[in-house]
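User: Can you write out an input/output pair for a complex, sequences first and structure second?

Assistant: Here is one pair. Inputs:
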Amino acid sequence: MTREKLYLYDTTLRDGQQTQGVQFSTPEKIQIAKALDVLGLDYIEGGWPGANPTDSAFFDEMPKTRARLTAFGMTKRAGRSAANDDVLAAVMNAGTQSVCLVGKAHDYHVTTALGITLDENLENIRASIAHIVAQGREALYDAEHFFDGYKDNPDYALAACRAALEAGARWVVLCDTNGGVLPSEVGRIVGEVIGAGLPGDHLGIHTHNDTENAVACSMAAVDAGVRQLQGTLNGLGERCGNANLTTLIPTLLLKQPYASLFEIGVGRDALSGLTQVSRMLDDILNRVPMRQAPYVGASAFAHKAGLHASAILKDPSTYEHIAPELVGNARIIPMSNQAGQSNLRRRLTEAGLSVEKGDPALARILERIKVREDEGYSYDTAQGSFELLARDELGQLPEFFEVKRYKVTIERRKNKYNKMVSLSEAVVVVKVDGEKRLSVSESMDETGTDRGPVNALAKALTKDLGRYSQVLADMHLVDFKVRITQGGTEAVTRVIIDSEDATGRRWSTVGVSPNIIDASFEALLDAIRWKLIHHGEAR
Amino acid sequence: MTREKLYLYDTTLRDGQQTQGVQFSTPEKIQIAKALDVLGLDYIEGGWPGANPTDSAFFDEMPKTRARLTAFGMTKRAGRSAANDDVLAAVMNAGTQSVCLVGKAHDYHVTTALGITLDENLENIRASIAHIVAQGREALYDAEHFFDGYKDNPDYALAACRAALEAGARWVVLCDTNGGVLPSEVGRIVGEVIGAGLPGDHLGIHTHNDTENAVACSMAAVDAGVRQLQGTLNGLGERCGNANLTTLIPTLLLKQPYASLFEIGVGRDALSGLTQVSRMLDDILNRVPMRQAPYVGASAFAHKAGLHASAILKDPSTYEHIAPELVGNARIIPMSNQAGQSNLRRRLTEAGLSVEKGDPALARILERIKVREDEGYSYDTAQGSFELLARDELGQLPEFFEVKRYKVTIERRKNKYNKMVSLSEAVVVVKVDGEKRLSVSESMDETGTDRGPVNALAKALTKDLGRYSQVLADMHLVDFKVRITQGGTEAVTRVIIDSEDATGRRWSTVGVSPNIIDASFEALLDAIRWKLIHHGEAR
């Protein structure tokens, strides 16, 4: 049986950016777009060119993708031609292969929000879509408030869609803009729309999660015949978010009848990177990943109930709807039992440390991790610090050098041009091979910009470590994450540092302290010690 | 038309406690149960008496409720009578009016996980339910893995349900234990079950959110005829959680066809306390409430898109599916680079700044926000800094004092007991009323713990501001958020500080710099300036 193509359209960079508190920079947008492209999305909506400098810069700087990069905008305004509408012109100027325009499909909004006649609105849709097509681009029409509009005035909602299709739109996207429609209504209305002659393979669905049904509404629309599905990574989006592609993709790929009926751009290989893509987005947003997220959450395959955990050991399918590896996730069984120790041994093996089953060090390592996590540490991502902790318990951690003391000074004052400037300076005192060494560095980079106290500290620490300095020369910081968390009863700062060296490998280390500089210093120290242990190894 | 009764069954205290990281104390369980009772739930499942001390204590101490308090357990084991099963006896001893027992409905689990015959399992269900009924209690049977079981062996799954009904069970609850079933399957299977003669008004539905469809599956089951719905507050529960009652309740009460078809225990009055109940649970769990949560999330009625915000001002129903007041929530129009002038004016009004439509200052403020957001600032949540920026453009920002310079020193060294300790010290120089003032503070708190450089800086800054120090005495930091973001092409640090004063009001301010101490200082300064402007006002 030939499977039908189901198109996936991502709007993380546009509707996802409507999430309260989310503001992507241009480099972040590019990073996300590349990840979406690797994942296998068919369309990537990049933003609204002309609406703000970040979106415009993104389209200027975005490299070629396999996915169709799409610019978003709105249908031309009444009283001018499509060619003379400056807002539309800015959208066209982004030069994308596909252009998606939102326009009203609900009569009430045409007369109330826009204050124009119903016919003028249809003409705006028609002329705008025709303008895109005339320029050789692919046109999409987002039928705003389609479902509410259809319930009030089905003829007008359909007329808006037909105006776009007749003008050459490749897709008409049925939008539940307010997010209030329920799955059963979506199924019924899409059925009627297709019954009225609109072709399902030219229809898309765009839903919001205001009743926690965005995923279900999307699936109901696919069941009823639409062939393009819009959503966002991690369900970002205006108000309660958009349909969550991180959930929909594995469901479409792994569950019946979808797996047999449809061909989607995401393959099994890409699917196994889904958890990582989801975490990457949280990292960019500096959000704590949602533990309970379907498929990709840290708790999605955690088996807390005692009855469940013991059955899982016999056969994972007893309490798992899919195998966690398929989406790049992992099973969690409480550390306290036997399964906890085998999990730990697997992780140690990954770090190149082989420990016999039943070795008492395993229980000691588990206990120490538990105590540290209680203090605010987190070893989920900080694999480097995890390895050092384990090595310490196993007696396999050399003491390369000893830090005697350090001191960081941050000053802000007027410079000789009467401008406020800041400068940090760090002094580090270490003992290497029995010899005491003092180093000092400042935070100014080549351009004269203050890069801050952690930068100064990192430079001073690696500057003079005797025979080790050479080894550390190719190492640099690639990311620095700070989170305020709870350690015991007091708020503490958790710093996670990602480092990289010339072999291209990356490692993460963690530090915790009420003092952010001290937490950073601890993570830096771990990063250096990890590098010294592994410096001879190829990637 | 008479509305049919739809029963609501809460399992926050039992299945909700299976959430990773959740462990309620007995007083917390009592507090939650009381809130559920006020809300109008029909059943409150309190836990598994005998399984742990907290659950047993809860049933001992729980006061009378209007809702039926229900004890949870499992069907008796094979090879002994119901009366002689000690696990079942502990459940009965809790003395509740209703008792719910989970038992297998999937043939594979009977033979694999339990290792008994299919007939033995049916007998265990029958005898256990009959035992409950014989003691004058109401009996419920949770048909574990019902949907997976029905797909594999429908006759056996139905036989398990019939065994419970024939033995006198008031309810048979169809459970999707692994959470993998989709809404369309639930609809079809429940239809077949009722078609096979099982009465819908004796059937319940219990779903999990592993495909983000727990709410949709519950509604599909109600559509198909079940009349009891199980779930948890805020969707707590094993793995990805249970069906979210915080979402289902307003949907059933406010949306068609449910509002016309069904009578539920929750009334309009109780509904208006829903947001508060949801936040109370997060408070108990010390969780940050999920902003994007449907109905009750802080972002559920936040309108970030400029086009949306201006229409909302004309008529809220243009972009809201229900009025936020109905669930005790509130509308938010945040600031962002996508916001229009009407959005801005509304937000200025909220800050007590009235600006005429068309005032050129509006365009200047928007422009400055855009530039600042490009640098890494974010004004969505930092309402305090937004107001200061606007006041500055409007010429309504007094210069209370001038910061001439500051210096922070962070030192880590061995103390006299040869233990590594850290200490921070901050010196701030300000000019107030023409007079220069130097202040110094250190980061040690009363317990001798180093609270870090930002703490020292905050103390030094407020220590001696002349006539202003008195005003600032009741102000303190309540939260401190740090994220590394992109400002232009370089990584910068964004710090958001939440402050509070004796009136109980809170305000948020933001600072951005490559230097984390400097970013913190900027946010601190804004926090102080905001307080000085508003110090005379009541909350």
